[in-house]
Structure formats: C-alpha cells, structure tokens
Amino acid sequence: MNPTNVKEYDVTTQVSTLAPPGRRRGVAVSIDDIPHLDPPVAYTPVTAEGPTGLPEITLPSGHTALHVTRYDDVLKVLTEPSFGRRDTNVEGGPSFQPTTMPPDLLLNLDTPDHARMKSFVNADYSPAGVEKLKGSVRRILDRRIALLRSEESPDLFATVLDRLPVEVNVGFLGIPESDIDYFRPSSRVVQLSHDTDIPGLLENFWLVYHYVTDLVQRKRPVEPGGLIDRFLAARDEAEPPLSDDELVAILLGSVLGADQNVLSVLAKAVYVLVQAPALWTLLVDEPAAAPQLVEELLRVLPLGNISTFPRIATREVQLRDSVIPEGALVYADAFAANRDPDTFPHPELIDPFRDGKRHLQFGYGMHHCMGASLARMEITTTLVRLAHEFPTLALAVEPAAVPWDSGVLLRRPTSLPVRW
After folding, report:
1. Domains of the chain, with CATH numbers?
2. Would the pTM count as exceeding 0.85?
3. Do you know which InterPro entries this protein is assigned to (predicted)?
C-alpha cells in the first residue's frame, strides 16, 4: 500500500474537547480516495422530480417509491409513526429483498406492537447494559491478536475481526460457542440476501430461524444467566406475555445483526483507517478521540447496498418542500442523508472533529437499531486496541486486491492482509 495515494485535507472545525489546546483545524480524508468504499446503487432512478416534488425510483421488486434524501426529511420519515412497515412485508410487496420475512421481526412491526417488544430489550441493549461486555471483547482480542502476531502472512480480518462479534454475541446471549459453526455460515447468506438463489436463501434463513426457535423452546441448551435464559424467565413481564414466536423474532435480530452487521461496519472501519495514515495516527496518539472518530466513520460507511427499508405513508405528511400523499411508498435514504451537504459541510470528508447533528446510520425513532450501543462499544474498543498494538499498521496488498462480500444488507472486505 502506498499511503501517499490518500490525500489529506485541512478542514476548519469547531474546537473539540478532545482536540489539543488551540487546535482550530483538523486533518480529514476524502471518502473519494478510499477505493471500493461505496456500494452499487440498489434501485433504478425514474425521475429527478415527480408530481410530489421528490425524486422517484424503482425498487428491485418493481414498485415505484418516493426517494427522500435530505437529512431533515429523512429524519421526519424515520421518526413519524404514520410511515408503516408491516404492509411492505407481504407476498409481492414493495421491497429491496427477494423474499418476505416473519411478520414478528422488529423491523416489520408498527406501533403499538413494536414498542411492546422493543421495551422488553431496551435495558439490556442500552449503553449501560452492554458496558459489561467490554471485558469479553478485551479477552477475545487478547487471544486473537496473539494469533495474528504468530502468523507468517497475517490477515487481520480472518484472524481477529471475523470472530470477534460472533464470540461476543454468543457469550452475551448464552449460546454455546460450539454452535457457531452450525448457524453462522447461514447467517452470512441471510444477511447478504442475494436474489441469485432464492431457494438457497430461504433454506439458510429457516435453518437460523429454527435454530433460534430450538433455543427458545429449550430443545437446545443455553447457558444459565445469558440473555436468552433471562428473557425466558422474564417473558411474563411484558403485557401481554411474549410468545415463543415473538422471542424468536427478537433474538433472531441479535443472532444476525450483532454478528454480521457489526462485523461489516468494523471491517470497513479498519479498511478505511489502514489507508488513511492521518486518521490512524490520530487514533494512535489520541485514543480518547476514538468515539468521535467512530461516529464519523459510521456516518460515511453504509452497512450494505441499502440504508433503510421502504415504508408506506398512512396519512399525508408535509416535508420541507414537498408533501407525501397518503398511501405513497417511501424510501427514506439514510445513506444520502448522512452526506447531505446542508447538514454536514463537505460531507465527503472524514473529519473526526466534526460537530453538528447526529448521523442516521442506526436509523432513528421507533426503528432505531437495538444493537447500536453494542456496535459502538465493540468497534471503539477494537480500534483503540489495534492502534495500541500496531501503531504502524497498514495493508500488505493493494486495495484492488482486497476481496469483498456485497449484498443487500451487508457489504464488507473479507480479507485484510496487513503488515506492521
């Protein structure tokens, strides 16, 4: 890797509490200088301005949707309960995915059902709830980094990153670590969600679904005191009590997302930083700046080829310069909103000392990702540790030689040969 291929940009920023005294300018890196970072477009543009004043796009399902891209408009759609998800998850419905999903999944629920199920898990997935997992992250990193140091051709993805989220998550849930090799290959296929082999996609989905069902019904062992064990003991505290299907729906989101989704963002964050010496040096010299750096990386790193799921307006809604009519299909593009220049000046720059509004990577409102705090903790802890262990870390190959997984729900490098 030739670090000089990545340009550094001086950007004027407001003084951060983490910046050195008197620092008025920070070094930023343009996403345009990081190869293969952005995904292919997952929709087909129809018109730049339809009758509502909004662009129109065609989804892979063939349905036409209003494309909402401005930050304030996307935020309103995400927080407004009048935009429903349930009616999109039907046979032949408007979707980016090639198949429907179980209706009890949190991402498919509308009010009030969503609030009932989400409130059941909020405490365990809060910042305080996941803080106790830091020790697990550190122990796994201890073991994995020792393995990496022993390798003749070290691959940071295969040896460290790939196993970290799943090992943390099975410990959190109380799933035997020996089960990982059974369900995890199918989890990857499900989250890629390719339409090239729908029977294979469904086969893998139902393997994971039935596996989680067996855990909930105690047909497979779970560790005492793990999240599954505690959820089963507390299910009657919900009103009405949570059914087996509802518990499976909650836990399926964790088995998939707290592994595959966290890994995707973590791998891309490392991929960016090892090609951006200024940002890596900042992390090495100022580990306290890591939370801000992670937030900025989250802003610019799309999870997969889409950023949110389509919604249907159940009433007329006024946006800033347009009106969404009742019954309209809407794609609130959080990826575009995170690069709205009216909200994030010079949005193409990764500026770790950027001030302003919060990014929408984890969604907002009712469908805000329940694993957001877990992802932040794992990514931040891992990056700080890697910077401490390997202050001169760099890619050992050209970026063009790095292989990628690319699908509807996730996109990431699958190998990161490194040197130090």
Report:
1. 3-419 (1.10.630.10)
2. yes
3. Cyt_P450 (IPR001128), Cyt_P450_B (IPR002397), Cyt_P450_CS (IPR017972), Cyt_P450_sf (IPR036396)
